[in-house]
Write a structure and sequence with these properties.
This protein is mostly beta strands and 124 residues long. Strand 7 and strand 8 form a beta hairpin. It contains one helix and eleven strands. The strands form two sheets. Strands 2, 4, 5, 6, 9, 10 and 11 form a seven-stranded mixed sheet that branches.
């Protein structure tokens, strides 16, 4: 499985960005998501999407970030609005290899596949 992110960049506070992740290769799972990481800190889950487009969104992202995917399930998106300097991080696309009925179950464990990351910088 390969995951390739795009869409990162630099914006000012209050701006928006849309991240994309294209998945290729054989994939037996159904849950994908986005993590982010700041140097010196642990990687944290931002949002995930699973069966029947059930979603998990971290508290800090609720009301501002929206996760979605295309009808084929091969392209994952993260629409980020009302961005704040605290959102500055490298954002990683992730996928879990096992099929799961519940996205909340899948995200209890670390994902199996990662993209290379895309940088998001929000200036005040």
């Amino acid at each position: 499985v390969q995951l390739v992110e795009s869409g990162g960049g630099s914006v000012q506070t209050g701006g928006s960005l849309r991240l994309s992740c294209v998945r290729s290769g054989f994939f037996s799972g159904n849950v994908m998501g986005w993590y982010r990481q700041v140097p010196g800190r642990e990687r944290e889950l931002v949002a995930a999407i699973g069966r029947r487009d059930s979603v998990y969104v971290a508290e800090f992202a609720k009301g501002r970030f929206t996760i979605s995917r295309d009808s084929s399930g091969n392209t994952l998106y993260l629409q980020m609005d009302s961005l704040e300097p605290e959102d500055t991080a490298t954002y990683y696309c992730a996928a879990w290899s096992e099929y799961s009925d519940y996205v909340t179950t899948s995200i209890e464990s670390q994902s199996d596949y990662w993209g290379q990351g895309t940088q998001v910088t929000v200036s005040s």
